[in-house]
Write a structure and sequence with these properties.
With 314 residues, this protein is α/β, with parallel strands linked by helices. The protein has a domain of 215 residues: Rossmann fold, CATH 3.40.50.880. The protein has 9 helices and 12 strands. Strands 1, 2, 3, 4, 5, 6, 7, 8, 9, 10, 11 and 12 form a 12-stranded mixed β-sheet that branches. The N terminus is likely disordered.
Length: 314
């Protein structure tokens, strides 16, 4: 008899989390807490600071990508206790998330800090900025590798290196080609010379300031969108200015939301067939999104000390 070999190990999340059932319907391998404790392995501990207004959608998007390796991943969802969210279902954050002060005595293999709808504000004007800076400072010594996404990347670059952000002439919105500078980087193992990724932002971190900082390495960029991926500390800090995690219809929902609010918004570039919003978008970034997150988790697995108590600043 030939037995099928599972291509991925599960992420460990509570059964009651809505994302659990959404991912099961997609045949993504997820594991309930009660089963995970009977496996004699050390799972990777990954925290997700979910700052996006689309709380549930973002959970599903990131958990889907984190499930696509042969590694068991133990997920902790993190919220900013100093911010009152009006986007999650009532009681959802209180039930499934922990506030930042609850993790300060723990250590993690990985941390993801998402984007947030606050990029047009000065960093210091964001109501949870002080709390987020504590998380960023904490992660430098207590997390092996932190993955910053969109505004999360701008925030991390500003906090750690003083890199300013500046407004763009118009929103960078759509699917864009990007090039890889370092093909042999662990993060880009298996990548094509050019790959596509969603962008959705009004601001950009200053490219000249990034290039002038010796601790930072620009790994991927393109003239049309600017810097896409920056790393520091040999991958212990990763800054991604776009949204590889986006679902097929995320940009469509953003576009129609802004249209309904009467906001100035152009049709997302390279997204709808023939640039016609009446047509269903064709996904052309999914494979590289899975590959990028798998490469990140494999890097974390290979490099993190087995005993997280040994993890600390260099």
């Amino acid at each position: 008899m030939v037995h099928a070999i599972p291509c991925s190990m599960p992420i460990k999340i509570p059964v009651a989390l809505p994302a659990y059932h959404a991912l099961q319907e997609e045949r993504v391998f997820v594991m309930a807490d009660i089963r995970a404790v009977h496996q004699d392995i050390r799972p990777l501990k990954v925290a997700i600071a979910n700052l996006m207004p689309t709380t549930l959608d973002t959970e599903v998007q990131l958990l889907r990508l984190l499930s696509n390796t042969p590694l068991q991943v133990d997920i902790t969802l993190l919220r900013m206790g100093s911010h009152e969210s009006h986007n999650a279902p009532p009681g959802h954050l209180e039930r499934f998330y922990v506030s930042s002060d609850k993790i300060m005595r723990e250590r993690f293999d990985g941390l993801i800090i998402t984007g947030a709808p606050v990029e047009t504000l000065a960093f210091e004007e964001v109501d949870y900025w002080d709390e987020l800076t504590e998380v960023l400072d904490y992660s430098s010594q207590n997390v092996w590798s932190t993955l910053h996404i969109c505004w999360g990347a701008q925030a991390g670059l500003y906090r750690r290196y003083g890199i300013p952000k500046k407004p763009l002439p118009q929103k960078l919105f759509g699917i864009f080609p990007h090039q890889v500078h370092e093909q042999h980087s662990t993060l880009f193992r298996g990548f094509d010379d050019e790959f596509l990724a969603p962008q959705s932002r009004h601001t950009a971190s200053d490219r000249d300031a990034i290039a002038a900082e010796p601790a930072l390495t620009i790994q991927s960029e393109t003239p049309e969108t600017g810097v896409f991926i920056v790393t520091a500390r040999e991958g212990r800090e990763i800054y991604v200015t776009g949204h590889l995690e986006y679902d097929p219809l995320t940009l469509d929902r953003e576009y129609r939301r802004d249209i309904s609010k009467g906001l100035p918004i152009a049709t997302p570039r390279n997204y709808y067939p023939d640039d016609n919003p009446a047509k269903t978008p064709v996904v052309r970034w999914r494979a590289h999104a899975h590959l990028f997150f798998s490469n990140w988790l494999n890097y974390v697995y290979q490099e993190t000390p087995f005993n997280l108590a040994d993890l600390g600043a260099e």
